[in-house]
Amino acid sequence: MGEMNLVVVGAAGRMGQVLVRTIASMEGVRLAGAVERPGSPQLGRDAGDIAGIGTTGVAVTDDPLAAFAKADGVLDFSLPAASVEFAGYAAQARIVHVIGTTGCSQEDDSRIAAAARHATIVKSGNMSLGVNLLAALVEQAAKALDRQDFDIEILEMHHRHKVDAPSGTALLLGEAAARGRGIELQRESVRGRDGHTGPRRPGSIGFAALRGGSVVGDHSVILAGPGERITLSHDAEDRGIFARGAVKAALWARGRKAGLYSMRDVLGLGGGVR
């Protein structure tokens, strides 16, 4: 099939630059387009120069439709509203759309799912292969340990610039735990505790979010039982792990039928988003 032509949206941003560098370092893919918001001071510049890898011949544009028309797939770690818009464009172009954007609302997810009738979309709160393997282990542990005896708490920490909480990864891990217990996360999650909260509700899944410094992403799932405690964790040291996972997801999705998939599908673990 030849190299897969990929577009990076938000190409001048921190994650966008990592994606540009990662594409340049991996086999089977090439940078075919780079998109930024209208009015960005980086418009017209070479995406490779911005990312520090030298000239690639791909200039940053604010016209996603034109960029998508020449591509096989798009890598998207942007904002929810932008990802919804890009999903529609990907559907028009009938190409792969890899979404690593977090903070999507139910309405956003519904619109992305609608676009997946015509686009092949891989969406995950975390593109790291290790995190998605961790999620599978969390699901198994939650299923094996009695909910009346073992409480589940999810702790995450990110850099000071992160704007959403809990993180998309924390929610991904919470969904895995809820699946293992056969419950709905939305009904059983506890997102914050302050003041006199009373005793912990049996069977609930708690979240705690820390923000500070330059932490890329640390996540721990604690299963606390009588007299013992199990901690499953993952620490991200380099944003490159998310970029490599996204490229692998795009390569996996190429040639597959339209639909909404997750990184669990990419890893062959099944049970992904549909």
Question: How far is the first residue's CA from the last residue's CA?
Answer: 26 Å
Tell me the number of strands.
12
Overall body shape: elongated
Q: Compute the average pLDDT.
A: 95
Helix fraction by DSSP (H/I, runs of at least 4): 25-40%
Structural class of the helices, strands and pairings? alpha/beta
Radius of gyration, whole Å: 19 Å
Identify the strand order in the major beta sheet. Answer: 3-2-1-4-5-6-12
Main sheet makeup: 7 strands, parallel
Unreliable parts: none
Strand content: 15-25%
Q: How many DSSP helices? A: 10
Query: Helix and strand string, N-terminal first?
Result: EHEHEHEHEHEHEHHEEEEHEH
Give the SSE map.
Blueprint: E1 4-9, H1 14-25, E2 29-35, H2 47-51, E3 60-61, H3 64-69, E4 73-76, H4 80-93, E5 96-99, H5 106-115, E6 120-123, H6 129-144, E7 151-158, H7 168-181, H8 185-188, E8 189-190, E9 205-211, E10 217-225, E11 228-236, H9 240-253, E12 259-261, H10 263-266
Parallel strand pairs: 1-2, 1-4, 2-3, 4-5, 5-6, 6-12, 7-9, 8-9
Antiparallel strand pairs: 7-10, 10-11
